[in-house]
Every structure is written in C-alpha cells, then in structure tokens.
C-alpha cells in the first residue's frame, strides 16, 4: 500500500512540473512576441588602446613595418608612453631610469649621456634614434619635454631601421616627438620643483589648423635653474622644441626643430673602485648626495637638432 502511495505522489509531482514547464515556455514565447525590434545605426569608435596603467602603449612604431600591435608584432617591442616619461624621468639619471621600465633594459652607469644595456649589450644616447633618424641625439643628456613616446625594439633591428652611426646588437631605442593632438588643443603652463632647490617653468602648446585639421603645431619649452639633489651640482638649462606635421589622405609629413642650452656646474659622474683595492670584500654604499667631482668643474653646451620625415 505504501509503495502505491509513493508512486502516486511521484506521478502527481511529475505532472505538475510538466504543466509548469509548459506554462513558463508559453509565457516566454508570448513575451518574445510582444517585444518590439529596433535596428540601431552603425557606431564607429576611434581610439588608442593603452595597457599597464597607461605607462606602456599597446602599439609600437616598428621602423618600416609601421605601427604594429604589441601582441601581433613579429619583433619584440615595448613603447613607453608620454605619461611614463613624465612620471619616472629622473632629474639626475636622465632617460636611463625611464628606459629601465622595459625588462630587457638595464641602466649601467652615470655619464654625460644615457648609458644602458639591452639584453646585455651596451648602448647609449649616441645610438638612440629620433623620429626614425639615427645620429640625432646629442653627445650629452638633453631635455625630455618634447618626447611623446619611446619605442624599444629588442634584438638586431638594422633590417627595419636601416644602418646608423652606432648600430647595436641588443636593440634599438627610438624617440618620438610630440605632435598636436587630433581631438583637442593642448594648453599647459606651470612650474615644477626638482631635487633640493631647482625649479622649472614650462609651457606645452598644441593645436591643429586647416581643413579636416590636417596641419598641426606643437611647441614645448622649459627653463630649469637651481641646485640638484647631489651636493655642489647646479644646473641651468633652457630649451624649445617645435613640431610641425601635416597629415592627409595620401601623405604624412613631420618636421621637428629643437634647441637646448645647458650650463652645468659640478656635474657628477659615476665612481668605480678597482677590484685591486676592494679585494673580496664588498664596500658599503656611499652617501648618494656626495659629489666626487670638484666644484669648479663646468660643462657648457648648445645643441640643435632637426628631423624631417615624409611618407
């Protein structure tokens, strides 16, 4: 008797469940019929994708291969963005510290130019490329306020960048100048404070002109004066960089002119200790603010640079 009652209860539950499914299916089908359909117009979104907190760009300028997605490029590349240059640039170490954001790049030593190694091969500012043109970097450290991004192409890249005055086996460091933005004008003016007592006044102006905004003007200028973080090092540096570009359906042209005047008193350099004096003992780290150069040391230089690109 109990078995019959259990079987009857199971049959009733199954029937009720089936009715529920049918009812829900019918209701869903009925609701779908009641919904109205609309066709939206095509929406096209233009933008630039950034990764790693906007410090590293998702695309790179890979020489003759043009703009390439970092995930699809046939060559290992990393592009350091303008935000990274402005955030990590060191007033005493130049561009070297910012370049070390790329895992294969290591800052080697302090000198008049930026000295790094790429995949273990030495490179310095004399081998850097500006707007795809070799030999444009000065023999001394220059200002960085004109830099829009830096492409680090790892490995031998003569085939895509051509030969230059200082080809490196480890890779190529290519600096790209700032251009006028297409979607908005740039109007920046301000004051920065560096190290112990150095201040910097700067301006950044950019606009586009003409039909379809095909012509662009970008001007960056700064004036730095004061004592740096290392004792007895005073730096006076003024610069101006002007970038003119034209972009149409059939061609692109870019002209960049830069001027930098530097007067540095007591500029520090790296100090190396011979293993003959150290032996097997590791010396303690010296005070980072100590300047091993005499106070009467003075470096003065003026640099002019011009690049012209046409595609």
How would you characterize the overall build of this protein?
This protein is an alpha+beta fold. It has a single domain, classed as TonB-dependent receptor, beta-barrel domain (Maltoporin, Chain A), CATH 2.40.170.20. 17% of the residues lie in helices and 38% in strands. It starts with a helix and ends with a strand. The model is unreliable at 21-27 (pLDDT under 50).
CATH class (first level) name: Mainly Beta
Largest sheet at a glance? 7 strands, mixed
Number of domains: 1
- With strands numbered from the N-terminus, the spatial order across the biggest sheet is 1-2-5-11-12-9-10
CATH evolutionary superfamily? TonB-dependent receptor, beta-barrel domain
Proportion of strand residues: 35-45%
Number of helices: 5
Task: Give the integer mean of the pLDDT values.
Answer: 76
* Quaternary structure classification: single chain
Stated plainly, the CATH topology is called Maltoporin, Chain A
Shape assignment: extended
Question: Nearest-angstrom radius of gyration?
Answer: 30 Å
H/E series: HEEEEEHHEEEEEEHEEEEEEHE
Low-confidence stretches: 21-27
Instruction: Measure the end-to-end span.
Output: 93 Å
Q: Give the helix proportion (percent range).
A: 10-25%
Q: How many distinct beta strands?
A: 18
């Amino acid at each position: 008797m109990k078995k019959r009652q259990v079987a009857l209860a199971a049959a009733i539950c199954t029937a009720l469940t089936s009715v529920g499914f049918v009812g829900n299916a019918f209701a869903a089908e009925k609701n779908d019929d009641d919904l109205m359909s609309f066709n939206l117009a095509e929406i096209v979104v233009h933008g630039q994708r950034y990764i790693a907190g906007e410090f590293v760009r998702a695309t790179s300028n890979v020489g003759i291969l043009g703009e390439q997605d970092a995930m699809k490029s046939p060559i290992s590349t990393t592009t350091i963005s303008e935000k990274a240059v402005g955030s990590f640039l060191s007033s005493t170490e130049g561009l070297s510290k910012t370049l070390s954001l790329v895992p294969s790049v290591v800052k080697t030593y302090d000198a008049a130019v930026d000295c790094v190694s790429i995949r273990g091969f030495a490179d310095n500012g004399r081998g850097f490329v500006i707007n795809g043109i070799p030999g444009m970097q000065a023999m001394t450290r220059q200002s960085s306020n004109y830099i829009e991004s830096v492409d680090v192409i790892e490995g031998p890249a003569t085939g895509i960048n051509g030969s230059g005055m200082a080809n490196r086996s480890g890779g190529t460091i290519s600096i790209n100048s700032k251009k006028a933005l297409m979607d908005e004008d740039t109007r920046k003016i301000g004051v920065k404070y560096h190290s112990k007592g150095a201040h910097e006044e700067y301006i950044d102006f950019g606009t586009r002109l003409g039909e379809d905004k095909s012509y662009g003007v970008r001007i960056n200028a700064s004036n730095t004066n004061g004592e740096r973080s290392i004792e007895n090092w005073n730096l006076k540096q003024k610069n101006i960089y002007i970038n003119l570009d034209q972009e149409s359906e059939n061609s692109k042209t870019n002209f960049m002119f830069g001027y930098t005047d530097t007067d540095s008193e007591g500029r520090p350099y790296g100090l190396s200790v011979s293993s003959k004096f150290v032996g097997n003992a590791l010396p303690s780290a010296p005070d980072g603010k100590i300047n091993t150069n005499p106070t009467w040391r003075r470096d003065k230089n003026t640099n002019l640079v011009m690049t012209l690109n046409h595609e």
